[in-house]
Amino acid sequence: RSRSGWLAESDDSNVVSFTWATPPAAPTGLTADAGDGQISLRWQPVTTRFDGSPLRAPVKYQLARSTDGGSFSNIGGQIVTPYYIDKEVQNGRKYAYRVQALTGAVGGGFSLTVETGAVDRTPPEPPTQVKVTFAKHAARIR
Question: How many whole angstroms separate alpha carbon 44 and alpha carbon 37?
Answer without folding.
Answer: 24
